[in-house]
Amino acid sequence: MSGLTAVDLFAGLGGFTEGARRAGARVVWAANHWRLAVDFHAANHAEVQHACEDLHLTDWTKVPSVDLVLASPACQGHSRARGVERPHHDAARATAWAVVSAVEALRPRAFVVENVTEFLSWTLYPSWRSALDALGYSVAESLIDAADLSVPQHRKRVFVVGLRNRRLFMLPTPAKRHRPAREILDLDEGGADWVPVDAPDPRGGDRL
To answer: pLDDT tens-digit profile of 123-176?
Structure first.
């Protein structure tokens, strides 16, 4: 990835941008519709140009040309944690179409889209993927659990990767040692400052 430039769409605190930086890419533009997210990203990555706007309405001719599009469209409409289906979930799922618009306008060498695994079960996912195929990209999905990368958390995500040269590319999925959370938590830190939590027991008892 060394020397590549990128945009970060639906940027949050800056994790995707930081990952790109560590891999050798330079994010030059990042956007989100939520001002708080943009402000946090700007605090963490002041060198990046920022925009706070609805990405469905973005004028892509004003966005820098880049080698790589990184995107994390809203996952709330796909996640099983969303609960009962609501009208706003359709709007959340539809944010993925902004990726197609960005790829069509910017014509990057590659794109990487991250989302919950249920993204692949979205009714319109085949059409969404076909649109990217039609733009001349080879598209492949990789399912990755953060625990397999030695992150002390099971966090399964799908990464949809597209390459403009039509060469199929699958992300490597190494299975590293799973680390328990106790390896990063110092439960002895604080000593006497720790106090018991006085909260109702969710199992029906009086207290935890």
So the answer is: 999 999 999 999 999 999 999 887 877 777 877 899 999 999 777 777 777 777
Classify residue 160: in a domain, yes or no.
yes
The model's pTM is 0.80
In a domain, 150, yes or no: yes
Phi and psi at residue 137, to the nearest 5°: -110, 140
| Distance (Å) of CA 15 to CA 152, 167, 174 | 16, 27, 20
Distance CA(71)–CA(101), nearest Å, equals 12
Structural domain of 56: 5-178
Residues with pLDDT less than 50, the chain: 77-78, 84, 88-89, 206-208
Residue 107's region, left for phi above 0, alpha for psi from -120 to 50, else beta, is: left
Please enumerate in sequence order all residues whose Cβ is within 8 A of that of 103, keeping only pairs 6 or more positions apart, or say none: 69, 111, 132, 135, 137, 162
The tokens describing 72, both together, are 């994390």
